[in-house]
Design brief:
Chains: A alpha/beta (276), B mainly alpha (299), C mainly alpha (342)
Shape of chain A: globular
Shape of chain C: globular
Largest sheet of chain A: 6 strands, mixed
Number of strands of chain C: 4
Structural class of chain A: alpha/beta
Distance between the termini of chain C: 24 Å
Strand order of the largest sheet of chain A: 6-7-8-3-9-10
Helix content of chain C: over 70%
Number of helices of chain C: 14
Number of strands of chain A: 10
Helix content of chain A: 25-40%
Structural class of chain C: mainly alpha
Oligomer: heterotrimer
Chain lengths: 276, 299, 342
Amino acid sequence: MTSAVLRRIAPARAVPTTLHPAYALALSRISLSFGGIHALREVSFQVAEGEIRAVIGPNGAGKSSVLNVISGLYQADSGSLVLGAQVFEHVSPQALANLGVARTFQNLALFPSLSVAANIAAGLTFQRKAWAISQVFRLPNARAENRTIADQVAEIAARLNLTPHLDRTVSTLSYGLQKRVELARALVARPKLLLLDEPMAGMTATEKAEMAGYIRAARDTTGLSVILIEHDIGVVMGLSDRVAVLDYGSKIADGTSAEVQRDPGVIRAYLGQEAA
Amino acid sequence: MMDWFGFLFLIEVTIGGLLSGVMYALVAIGFVLIYKTSGVLNFAQGAMVLFAALTFVSLVEAGVPFVFALIISAAIMVALGFAIERTVLRPLANRSPMTLFMATLGLSYIIEGAAQIIWGTEVHRLDLGISNAPFQVAGVFISTFDLVAAAIAGVLVASLTAFFRWTRTGLAFRAVADDQFAALAVGLRLDRTWATVWAAAGIVALVAGLLWGARLGVQFSLSLIVLKALPVLVLGGFDSVLGAIVAGLAIGATEKLAEVYLGPFVGGGIEGWFAYVVALLVLLIRPSGLFGQKLVERF
Amino acid sequence: MSAIVDTPPQTQNYLRHWPLVAVLLAAFIGVPAFAPVYVLEAILLPFLALALAGVGLNLLTGYGGQVSLGSAAFMAVGAFAAYNIQLRLALALPVTILLSALTAATVGLIFGLPSLRLRGFYLAVSTLAAQFFVQWALTKFGWFSNYSPSGVISAPGLTLFGYSLDSTTSRYLLALTLVTLITLGVWAFTNGPLGNDLIAIRDNETAAQIIGVPVLKTKLVAFAVSSAIIGVAGFLWAFTYLRTVEPAGFDLDRSFDILFIIIIGGLATLRGAFLGAGLIVVFPLLLSRLSALAFGGMIDSGVLELVQRIILGSLIIAFLIVEPNGLAAILDRVKRGFARTF
């Protein structure tokens, strides 16, 4: 059973050392304001396939707004998005799952009353085909569907070391575990693009290293692309291929971690005029 | 299409509706007070109106002079407010707004039951000494009572606004309404603020109860009628006094107009549900009501 | 228990559910054989109808998190639909019941549409629109009550496959069968991925939307199914218990009764609806018996009703403060205590 499941995963492939020409996502001059506040000013950036892209910047720089625009929670005032092969001016949140996009939230958006297994399984709801009636009467097609989903949940839980917790109610878990469950829920849908909003906030150093490991492993085994918002610069630099830096809604630097660390504009934004 | 008399009649109905809308707004303001400061939708506000009116009327019927009855009723409503804060709100302090709403459902049952056990279930006449004689303005009949009621409501709103703007307690109310945690952090006593708010809502309930009671007689159905304040809130936003006033006027007017002009086609009785359906329809177009603040959710 | 893991082998399943089986046996066989008619008429019939209404409302409010203050309106729709279908179409009983359920579901869908955009208090207020409008429409338009002058119709007798269902026992068995079947259906629904979808939407609608849970469809299905069940409960209330059909019996107080049933019984639990309904039905009877004993019938029924109101309100507040998970949680604790001592 497990080997059949494993065969369905894309074969592991090496991380590309040069930018792959195909983009998983391209943002083109996205602008967004709330009342008088410009959250994003003409932000453009691209994410290549299989790339881990970090977005960093001081608080209020607009990082979460980028994710929220991509996931359709905020509507951009102008600019467009290319996701996969389609161009969007506005993404609708319901369309995300079918577009192969999954995300986690800064403040945890799990379903507290449900078990870990049910939370992760919820990530696959969009693939369910059996009708309500079949579920109610436990018809064979519904049961088969449930079994397939259960297998996928078990497999992702094993990869993220969540198996002992599958039956526990999510609200009883520690914060770090909950964050991992949210990651599992995002990964179970085998997304092509993963949006992570501060997935390591509030974690210890060990937990952060583990989390970084899970993210990297997911990219290595499935070739998905990741956009990662994170404040811990050490984690960001070690994990990501390229980094974009936002400040007051504009992108002020974009490049590899080394390049970005040396950029005077970035230093100024983080440390102030004098340090530059 | 419509002759001069018909037009005058339309104006009359509209004005009458507007004035009863003022009364709805009065009840709605009580809701807004509590919602603004504690996020609780106090379903028991109607019961409080009934309770206040019954208290006053029974005191007057027992021979207590008007002014004393007023003061005593006000004191009782204040005490009620404090009691509610102590026994219901404090134990439920950190619970969801829906839980608190359901608690106020229970509260409404208790207050209604208690009011009628203590003072009986008959209808009481309430005479506030305001004449109900209609007078004419440019050929349109306006009820004196309604006008005086509107004036009283206006004074109440003005004093509340002044209170919120210029007194310390009023400032505390606004702080708590804005952000409970921040208010706590600055050292404001939440429980005292809430107790005061509920007491203030109680006074508003008293004024509303007296005016409505004088209009319709003090009886159990009073609490049902004031339920009409809920669509007013929905339209005007749960946290806006201005919204409550405008929406109250709008609902009062449209309801009256609908009853008079549409009612005959369907056998009357529209007033029972029209306000709710209007609110429903508005909500379908603007989910946060006409004046409600559009919450910007932070993700 | 993980909802999506395959159920364990059959034998283990049945053994686990023996208390339920025992209760069902007692209900189907024991009660008709041994219980006095009074118990059936005054306690069990209203209990079954109200419990079913609680099951229906719980689906929407407990599992789905959408507060509805208009459940009595849907009971009325079910009752009047059944009356009119039987009167004008004279269909077989099962078909009548199904059609009234569908009618209630349709009305529920219409008044449930606002829930697609509204949450919390706004939704609660919009359900009041259903409550007042439906009551008014059923009273105003004589067609619904076949132009009966008093507006009160006595429910016509029920027949199933030629057998008259007028006797207390047969009405009881009809109600019991319907309630059992529907409850089983709801259990199957909530104990699976659909139930989880509903709970997910209740817990965090935005997240549910983003991961691809069909939010709109699920909400509407919840409203429709819930209203259908409540409609059948209304049919039971009017046809098996009261034997009259009138709009006044489906007023705002009745809606509150059902809401109180699921709050006191325990939101998002099936047994909660039954426990709550039991309390609501038995409590007034107990109270009048007690007052007769203690005060020798000096207290008139009007006062008793008011006292009931006060106690009910206090119970709600007490439960919300002390045991927000209702009687169901208390029952669980008792069962655990029992299991420990044996």
